[in-house]
Amino acid sequence: MSNLTKSIEEVIKQFKRFPTVGEKSATRFAYFLMRQPKGEVKKLLSAIVAITKDVKFCGSCNNLDDRDPCGICSNPKRDASTVCVVESAVDLRAIERTKKYNGRYFVLHGVLSPLDGVAPKDLKINKLIELVKNNKVKEVILATNPRVQGETTANYIKGQLSGSEVKVSRIAYGIPVGGELEFIDSVSLVRSLEGRRRY
Amino acid sequence: MSNLTKSIEEVIKQFKRFPTVGEKSATRFAYFLMRQPKGEVKKLLSAIVAITKDVKFCGSCNNLDDRDPCGICSNPKRDASTVCVVESAVDLRAIERTKKYNGRYFVLHGVLSPLDGVAPKDLKINKLIELVKNNKVKEVILATNPRVQGETTANYIKGQLSGSEVKVSRIAYGIPVGGELEFIDSVSLVRSLEGRRRY
Question: Considering A72, A111, A163, B68, which has the largest number of Cβ atoms within 10 A of its Cβ?
Fold first, then answer.
């Protein structure tokens, strides 16, 4: 086995650790990179170094940023009385891109999953509860994904906040805009009917 | 926009250039990397540097290796009279992993595709024809993928070699081992029947 072959195996091993990447994609990535001009590879390497070198978890909301507290928590224009709970920093990014939300966040970095050994303490839910109490939060928007584990997590947080006066809301279920009734699953369709609003 | 946000956008842009990677996967990769321990990121970076630093195209077969001619072409134990034509170095790797092929290769790095502007000269098919003539090759195995463009490419190469005495063969079509007749597409099933062998 040549040195290059060994190195290729190592790159494939590393890429296989990426989310949703299996042996096949990892192999394609390795060979793709080998065929790239050196300048392009350098751009990728520099970009990875840039995002991983100074990244910090925000002590307040667990978001990933280059400062702590993060840009959102330290921005006085953001409404600290509303906290949107998301599963991941990717979800936070998706909401930020809409430019329609001006509150703060709390990033769980996961969902409750007893089978995978993910308990409330792993998601720092205690920290969320404390933050809600100490910061006089008026509304907690539960924006975990509408899947079994996301629901379980939302439900658990709702339970933990039940004693307090904070308003707890859940993002709306329904038909995605541009979707077609014909092709939507019946659960979403039922939720869409249940969640109907006066027109 | 913070510096980190800019860097994240750059990483996403870079990952989107990878085969089969879109905006969503690229975003996940970026956030995945940010949550990795520094040591793990370093391993990935070193591995990428290792495969991209000294990689060369083999002047004989177009394979990617750290030497030219590549490890296969320079190995006297490999049978130079058989050449297996593959679309990519990934396909070459797949065949090598079977450990059942002892000939040489010719890597096209693509398939004929007039719509995408890929012509015979882009695949260096002339070089293959010369190699077959000059090296007294006895058999050319066409191992391009059994899809429209792979077939077209195989067909074209067969045509180019028609004047010479070399034996041109095509890898067998059929049911993958472990596959079930019930679920296989009918084209493969027909090919499997046509290609039946005495048992």
Answer: A111
